[in-house]
Amino acid sequence: MSALLKRVDLASLRVGIPTASGFMSYTVDYITLDTGMGQKRVERALSDLKAAGIVTVSQPRQLLPDGSFKGLAAIKTISKSLFSAFGLGVMLKKERNKASKRQAKKVKKWEEEKTTLTSRARGALFLGSLLSKLGNNSASKKDKAFEYEKRLQLTAAQLKQKNPSWSSKQCFDESEQLLSGP
Length: 182
What we know:
Layout: H1 2-6, E1 8-9, E2 14-19, E3 22-25, H2 28-35, H3 39-51, E4 55-58, E5 61-63, E6 69-71, E7 75-78, H4 80-85, H5 89-113, H6 117-133, H7 137-162, H8 168-180
Helix pairs in contact: 7-8
């Protein structure tokens, strides 16, 4: 019981560790290592705790592509009545509220760290457009330089299509003259 209580997540009363990729349940193998008891003895102790109503165990399964099922680590949950039996029911409620708030902060942090390159690029584009609308000179200069370079390359490519014998330097020189105007 002490090994389970040591690893209980107060927010959900599940035994395991909440991570960014989901909740990792505490397996019998880890309980065995943690307690130093044999695996059969741990299994009997869990069976006794289940029979007493102190621990509930549910076995999730995952459907595999071939249609068969794979058993995942069993989800062990500590009953609230255990804490009430020791006179800790009110304290458990307070601590669970605190733990829920801490967990929400962690989840928010994990979600912020999970931003993809695409979302970062969208954010940069959005900020760039905001800056240009606000009249930020450096952003508008970069935009103008980018647009000029793009037009220069397109014009040079069109000239190369019309005049295949020209070198790329000749195409770029001619496109610069065309874009600069009279």
